[in-house]
Amino acid sequence: MTTITIEQLGKRFGETAALADVSLRLDTGSFTALLGPSGCGKTTLLRMIAGFEAPDSGRIAFDGATVCDSTQQIPPEKRRVGVVFQSYALWPHLTVGDNVAYPLRAHGVPRAEIGRRVQEVLALVGLARFGERRPDELSGGQRQRVALARCLVADHRIILFDEPLANLDMHLRAEMIEMIRTIHRKTERTMVYVTHDQAEALALADRVAVMQGGRLMQFGAPHDVYRAPANAHVAGFIGRGSIVTGSRDEQGTVRIGEVIVPVRSATPHAAGPVRVLVRPEAVQPAAAGLTVRVRRSTYRGASHEIEAELKDGGTILFDQVTPLDEGGMVRLAIADGWIVPED
Ligand SMILES: Nc1ncnc2c1ncn2[C@@H]1O[C@H](COP(=O)(O)OP(=O)(O)OP(=O)(O)O)[C@@H](O)[C@H]1O
Question: What's the rounded Cα separation, in Å, for the pair 6 and 230?
């Protein structure tokens, strides 16, 4: 419901540049994941959108209207932004229904309407029959649903998530991801989701902002950051794969070792060495392929992950239904590669 414009945002904490020159446009109704390793600045950016932190430089605007820059700051309660925290932040002495009703009571909404709206959002998060329970009678996943319901009931135009699933086990996470996706589709609110888990980001978001060291490395659809990472950092952070050294000839043909590899690239490259990102799904054993030595064969359930060594000492990763002998030689065909742009 709201477009968020972030322009050249900067923030320092002493010597640390938590954010440096970050610009982003989050379209109305979009779902953006802020993704990056610990300390990359994603929480600082989220806190600035919420209004808990002020920038040193740059500006944030909602639908074109400035909410903060280096001279002014609209307080959090006036921004119509809801936040779902990792720690749930529920009132322990209130029932689920009263926790959810809280923002409506604070705004003097009539009782009958409160009852109706609370029931509506509890149904939306799958807790229609839990209104009378207290938070300590709920599982972690259910508590997080209550926190989300409380955000949804308040008619916020933007919903921010700060690593909301970090305390939950793998199965609950998968369930919550499905629920959050469904709710995003139904409510069409602008959502921003902080995570350091790339699988979560790819599954949930329609846009992923990859950050490192306070800088924005890439902003694009999950498919783009996976298939065409902007640099080696993004390539290493998103998905599995390996960066291997190839060589490009005058005709533009790229070879890794002795085999020709079909590659995609952002810009035309001159002849010479290139760094090629190869995803495991592009690699298959083949009679006349690149010769490698199996270094490690690891059982992963659905398949065996094979790490193999190229002649030049580089590593390549691929999956196999059956395990391979460590130390053995195999030949590989590579169906696709991405030439990683230089930093
Ligand atoms: N209030 C603060 N005072 C001092 N330094 C801070 C403060 N808040 C953040 N920082 C520093 O700014 C940098 C960015 O922090 P931020 O919390 O935004 O990163 P993050 O990517 O969210 O990390 P995490 O996933 O660990 O929460 C870090 O180096 C952090 O130590």
Answer: 20
